[in-house]
Amino acid sequence: MRRLTNQARARAGLAPLHAEASLGRSARRKSLDILRCDSFSHTACGRDFTYWIRHFGYPSGGCWSAGENIAWGTGTLGTPRSIFSSWMHSPGHRANILDPDFEDFGVGLKVGTLEGNPAAHVWTQDFGARC
Hints:
This protein is an alpha+beta fold.
């Protein structure tokens, strides 16, 4: 997923995003919340989409901005290529991936039952920028 994201940015003439450990942790926790609460939402478990980003300390201070992409699928619809293709065909998700202001990101994947679908692959991308 990281490679696909940075390849798309390179094709658009943008700098690559840097893998940020705190955003990786927040993205994995968001995917886990979606499964745990059986709620495919940016506010899964009643938490604001920035809850885990702040919890894991991105960034350590000052002003910042963030964005998030979530998706899920089973079987071939849950693969990195399938999920990424869906994001790139969605204006809002594509805008996050190609936002020139974002510098950092993390990716999370958790597999479990979602909305009665076993082996759902739940993907989260968290993006960040420091002011």
